[in-house]
Amino acid sequence: MDPNEVLMLIVEASLGLAGFAGVVTAVGRRDAVYDVTLQRLNLVNLLATAFGALFLSLGALALQSAYVDGATVWPVCSAVGLLIMVYFATRSFLEIVRTIGPGRTLRTPTVYVINAPVVLVCGLQIWNVFEGSAFWPFFVLLITMFAIGCFSFARLLFAPRS
After folding, report:
1. DSSP assignment of 78-127, as one string?
2. What CA–CA distance (Å, rounded) separates 143 from 75?
3. Among 150, 159, 153, 92, which residue's Cα sits nearest to residue 119?
4. pLDDT, tens digit, for every residue of 86-132?
5. Residue 158: CA atoms inside 13 Å, Cβ hemisphere, count?
6. Which sequence spans correspond to the domains of the chain?
7. 3-class secondary-structure state, position 27
8. How far is it, in rounded angstroms, from Cα 101 to Cα 110?
9. What is the 8-class DSSP label of residue 68?
């Protein structure tokens, strides 16, 4: 499959995911009692990852349409994506620590389920910036962002009642 087709697919899927976030928030359980801070964190994570994947894909498409060589496009996109992922992971982790406390955070499996792939993907992006210059590491970054968005969507949709 051509990288442009894959990027367009990610743009469309990211828009759909962000749209579903709006629907879930609008028709969410208003009468239910649940932790509003964690709901807000899941919504912010969902929107940040969906729009992050969207704008990274659009940026890569714009660079390619400007006839920039792929050996330049993919490292640049990986570098920008790396900055987004580091900011996203740090911000989310600090928000979780602030919300549920440091001791409980380290015992929460969700922190490891999300942050372990993020650390691996960040390492892959560093490799792509300095050595790789390939599309597939950037694609892995986009898929990771989309998967985290889907995970946040599921947590938002199935938020437990307190």
Report:
1. HHHHHHHHHHHHHHHHHHHHHHH-HHHHHT-HHHHHHHHHHHHHHHHHHH
2. 17
3. 92
4. 998 888 888 878 877 777 777 777 778 778 889 999 999 999 999 98
5. 5
6. 3-26+33-157
7. coil
8. 14
9. -
In the prediction, which pLDDT does 93 show?
Answer: 83
Return d(Cα 85, Cα 82) in angstroms, integer.
Answer: 5
pTM of this prediction? 0.85
Tokens of 162: 């307190």
Counting every residue written for the chain, the total comes to 162
Distance CA 19, CA 29 (A): 17
Are 118 and 85 spatial neighbours (Cβ–Cβ below 8 Å)?
A: yes
CA distance 67 to 1: 19
Residue type, 73: V
